[in-house]
Structure formats: structure tokens, C-alpha cells
Amino acid sequence: MRYRLIASTALALAVTLAAGCHSMKTFVPPNLRAPENANSSLEQARKTLQQATPCCSTFADFSFQDNLPWQPRKFVLGPGSTVVSFNGEHSYFLSFSLPRETQLPYRVAVKSELNGRWLRASYLFAPTVVVLDDAFQPIATQDVGLCEHMGWTDETTGAFGSIEITDKRARYLVLYSSAKQQAGSTYWEQSPAAFSAEAPVKMAAAGTFKVPHGPDGTVWVGMMDKTYQGAVDNAICAKPAQGDGVLSTLRDSIPFPVIGDKASTPSTSTPKSNGADTSNAPATGSSPSS
Q: pTM of the prediction?
């Protein structure tokens, strides 16, 4: 009796599962599913920042105990980080003392990492850099432009930018994100994952789009080194201009004729011997009729 009950229970369960398979959509693992709302994380991050209490509103209130790293170093900005308020706009920030023994000019490297597991639902912390003098007065302010570079390592992959320190009065550096930066975006040339009913996980063959800027994220900052120099110099900042095609470029660049030009087509006419008409001449070696 006990075995009969177990068998009937197993049979009922199998029938239920079989019926459910016909009505259930194709199963996609959670780590491969597209986000239901791509903007939810970004909006939540903005809300969290606006609710944070600023520590200061002037540069003189900042702490400049940390020296600018001698090579780019990783910093994570987000909940728990210090917040500044400029004209009512909040931002997470970093502050550094600049090296005084370094010969001018020198460059400071910046890299932002994508914040999010899905490219279409990701955003970037776009930095603004302010250089200050001894009296904590701004010498220069720059919204750092970011350009995409996909390298062979994590160190050379991300959105890269840089600034140049040229003023001998420069003593301090503040990195934050202005309201203009937070409202902007960065050009990205990377094919994201596209989803459809036929193929739950399908890579798009091509596609360019813009990654929005957000209030938090991971940023690298420090003195420029060779690795970052190469990434900055080879990064993609915008969609390249359309050309006229390879053949058109070759015709403009190469001085001699190319295939297809009439000038390069050889003559096909039959040459005549000494001006005489040989069309009715007998074949060589034939005997005359008697």
C-alpha cells in the first residue's frame, strides 16, 4: 500500500510538470536575464545621493591629507562616501595634495568603470576636476571627457580621460561630478546582449550607443603612467566619420590606372602585315589547286 501511494504521487507530480512545460516560457538563468527596468538602479543612486548630508560647501572645508597617487589607484564612490554641495547640487568627491617636486607640465590620469552588470543598464561616474592654489582658490576647472577603450586586461578597459597640470601655483586637486557631467553621457562602441523570444540570449552583431552618467561608481585617479597613456591615446571618443570606400580612396591616392579604367584596357584589334589585306590568303603549307 505504501509503495502504491508513492508511485501515484510521483505520477501526479510528473503529469503536473509535463503540463507546466507547455505553458512555461524558455527558462533563462538569472545571471543571463535582461534587467526589467534599466533605469531603476540609476534613479535609485541619484535619489540616495540627494538624500545624503553634505560635509562641506567650500573647498577650504576639504581635507587634503591624501597625496595624489604616483600611479592610478582605485576609489569607490557611493553611499558612505563624503558628499559636497555646490549650488544645491550634491556629489561624492575626492581631494588630494599635488606633488610639488614634479616638473611641470604633468598629466593626471582618470578612468571610470561601468557601474552595473548589464551594459544597457550601466552608467559611469563622470568626473569634474578642480585645481586649487595655496589659498584653496580655483585655478582651473575641467569636466573630464571620457573615451572608451577595451583592452586585454581590466586595467586597460573602461572610460579614460586625463588633465594636464601646467600652473606652478597648483597645490591641491578636487575630483567630483558636476551637474552637467551627471546629466551627460559617454559614447560607447560595444555590442550589448539583445534578447528575443526565439533566442533568449543573443549577441547583437553591431551597435553603438551612449552610456549615461551617474552619481556614483568606481574611478581610478593618479599620475599618468605608460599603461594609461596607451589607453588614453587609443581610446574611442566618438563615432568615426564615414569614408567614401576603399576603391574611391585608392583611386585618389594611387597615380596609376586601376582595374576598370578604359585607359588600362589593352587594344584587341588584329594587326595587319605591311598594310596588306591577308584575310583571303591561303593557309601556310596548303597546295594550290591544279
A: 0.67
